[in-house]
Amino acid sequence: MHSRSFAIAVATSFALVGSDVALARDSWAMPTEAAVEARVALRPTRAGKGASGVARVTSTKNKANQDVLTFEITTRGVAPGKHALNAHENGGDFDFTSCDDDARCVGRSYNPSSRPHHGPLALKKFGASACHFVGDGCVLNRHIGDLGNIVVGEGETSTWTFTDAYTTLKPGAENSLVGRSLVIRAGEDDFETEQDDGNAGPIILYGAIEVK
Q: What is the tens place of the pLDDT at every residue in 162-198?
């Protein structure tokens, strides 16, 4: 990794499993080619009755030619405060019309490497190498689907934007969100509890992540 600011940012973040969302890092989001975009129509569950939302997920390249995803989540009718945001296993071509009122059809939080549930910036050191970034003495120590908390503001409509450098929209990649679903829960992710995305309560909104 050639960007000094990138190395410093991630070295600082690797012990911070309690961050709400992956921090926006301007030096990461320098596009070098046309952006790829996914749209998510968020539908309510029984627990989220009366709520709705949309999400836009945009993939750009940083200076090191790595994918960085920018999430823009807009909700309507959701209570103010922090709400867990996760990517779950089932989406894409999955038939959500067969989903029950609790959205169990989305499956579990997407976790192909069987990592523990943590905050979006959680890294783990291995071997004798220093831990600066994933692939340089570090592995990502979270579910791929662990995206942190969004913060819903006061008012009927609220928008929250953040970036994540550990996921992609590249089909077939282990860390790809294509073919998954985006899930918002009623409460805050505690970044420790495996059940309900950090003991965050029932799903209130969900939808398929589809590249346009």
A: 999 999 999 899 999 999 999 999 999 999 999 999 9
**Are 102 and 203 a contacting pair, CB within 8 Å?**
yes
Task: Read off the tokens for 170.
Answer: 């590249």
Q: Where are the domains of the chain?
A: 4-211
Backbone angles phi, psi at 153, to 5 degrees: -85, 180
Closest Cα partner for 143 from 112, 173, 111, 120? Answer: 111
Predicted pLDDT at 128: 56
Topology classification of domain 4-211: Immunoglobulin-like (2.60.40)
Does residue 98 or residue 153 have the better pLDDT?
153
Give Cα separations from 87 to 84, 136, 138, 192 (angstroms): 10, 25, 22, 17
